[in-house]
Each structure stands twice: as C-alpha cells, then as structure tokens.
Amino acid sequence: MATTIRQLADMKRAGDKIPMVTAYDYTAARIADAAGIPIILVGDSLGMVVLGHDSTIPVTMDDMVRHTQMVRRGASNALVVADLPFMAYQVDADDAMRNAGRLMQEGGAHTVKLEGGLPVADTVRRIVDAGVPVMGHIGLTPQSVHALGGYRVQGRTRAAARRLLDDALALEDAGAYSVVLECVPSPLASVITERLSIPTIGIGAGPHCDGQVQVFHDMLGLFSDFLPKHARRYATLADQIAAAFRHYADDVRSGDFPAESESFTMNESLLSDLLDG
Ligand code: KIV
To answer: Could you identify the atom of ligand 1 that is nearest to the CA of residue 201?
Structure first.
C-alpha cells in the first residue's frame, strides 16, 4: 500500500519531516521509491527539465498523463502526486474535475496538485468532493511566472504575506490535504505551517515546513550550469554521465569496446557452411 494522505497528517502531528522529490519516468521513480521517499511528485517542471521548454506553461494534459503513467509503474510504496498543468483547472470547475480524473484514471496518480490559493479554493473543493485528494501550491507559482514578473520570492510585504496566509487557510478549508510553499520567506512559512493542521511542503521556504520537495535534476546535479538558491546538490550526475560518455566513445574508437566477453558466439561450423554456400 502506498503512503496515504492520512499517514502524512500523522507525520505532521508527530513532527516527522516529510521528504518529497520529483520524478518524471519509471526508472527515476523506482530509484526514489526504493530509497524510501514517501511522496513522488510528477511535477509540471518536466516541461523544463525533460521537454526542454523555458517554462511550465507549454505542458499539456497529455504530457502529464504520459509521465504520470511512467512514474506510477515505478513507484510501489510512494504516494504519486501529479500536477495539473496550466489551463487544466482555470477555465471552470467541470474542466478541472475532468482533468483531475484523467490524471487518476489514465495516469494512475493517487492525488493531484494545482497552483493558487483563494481564487482556486472553490475548484479545490469540487475536486476533493469528487474523491480526488488535492495538494495546493502557493507562493511562487511557476505557471503564473509572467503575471508575477519572474521567478521571485513571494510574500515579502505585509499585504503579500497576509494574502499568502489567507491562501493557505482557504486551501485547508477547501479540503486540500497538504500545501506546497514555494519561495516563501522562512519566518512566514513557519507561521503558515503553525496555523495549518495539514502538512506544508517547502521548496525555498526554509526549515520550518513539515516537509521539503526538491526537483530531481537540481538535487542530482543533472544541470551542471545552474542551481537555484534553494536547491542542494546531492550528486553531480551530469559530470559523471559526461565522463562515462567520453570514456565509452574512447573505448569504441580504440576498439576496446566491445570485448569478446561482451559479444555473442555461434557454432563456427554453421558459419563455414554459410561461407561455403
Ligand atoms: O513542478 C514541480 O516540480 C513543482 C515543485 C517545484 C513543487 O511544482
């Protein structure tokens, strides 16, 4: 049985921190799952780190369904959360419910995540009432990058901080089981975490959140040229992969690869017959 949203609530109550990572395919999900990560997010960040777009805005429902399927096949124990992409829930609540349903029914997600606070609270309530657990996402909401004027820390004025607290409370009231706080000043994230009975998951929101989420490619060093301030690099895989590719290319060029032990044999007499024939 995968991690349940009830277990996450218990973890908050017990003060047990919740680690969450993003993954976008079967292999990555298997590794995260086997490492004991309790929540895997199929983030729409895949638009940037997998599909090569410069934002999450071009990501489609079909992209999300396909990648959620891959992750779900690789995750036996983790709760799989799938992002509703840009314009999959903003048009109207019926559309949002249909798309949330697709992520569960076609993608195999256990729960969905969507961006926004008070303005999406009614939509969250409708989706939750339909039996789909919803994780909220406030603070820096990347789907609104152009409205926000860039990828910047949110909630730094008195009014903006108040708005974020109200957003968080509105999501809890609408039935969200957890809220991501992205790029929120640490003291504000701490207040929000204290005021909510549901777990907060931070990314760039300091150490007081109930859990943390990191983007797969950031934490594993798959982009060697860029690291957001809030990310910590736990490996430098881009360098290791590049070194492995260079080594392989050298071996092919020198004839060292493949060796006889990496090749297949056959009955030599068959070959003689073939040549004679
Ligand atoms: O898409 C994503 O990776 C996310 C995380 C940054 C929380 O939403």
So the answer is: 7
Distance 216 CA to ligand 1 centre (A): 10
pTM of the model as a whole: 0.96
| Distance in Å, CA 264 to ligand 1 centroid | 45
Q: What is the secondary structure of 153-197 as a DSSP string? A: ----SHHHHHHHHHHHHHHHHHT-SEEEEES--HHHHHHHHHH-S
Q: Which residue's alpha carbon is nearest to atom 2 within ligand 1? A: 43
Token duo for residue 66? 């396909």
The pocket around ligand 1, CB under 6 angstroms, is made up of: 22, 41, 43-45, 83, 137, 180, 182, 203, 213, 215
pLDDT tens, position by position, for the chain (277 residues)?
Answer: 899 999 999 999 999 999 999 999 999 999 999 999 999 999 999 999 999 999 999 999 999 999 999 999 999 999 999 999 999 999 999 999 999 999 999 999 999 999 999 999 999 999 999 999 999 999 999 999 999 999 999 999 999 999 999 999 999 999 999 999 999 999 999 999 999 999 999 999 999 999 999 999 999 999 876 789 999 999 999 999 999 999 999 999 999 999 999 999 999 888 888 888 7
**Residue 135: which region, alpha, beta or left (left: phi > 0; alpha: psi -120 to 50)?**
beta
- Show Cβ contacts of residue 151 under 8 Å, excluding neighbours closer than 6 positions: 140, 142, 145, 183
Biggest distance spanned by C-alpha atoms of the chain: 89
Active site residue 194: no
Distance in angstroms (rounded) separating the CA atoms of residues 97 and 256: 57
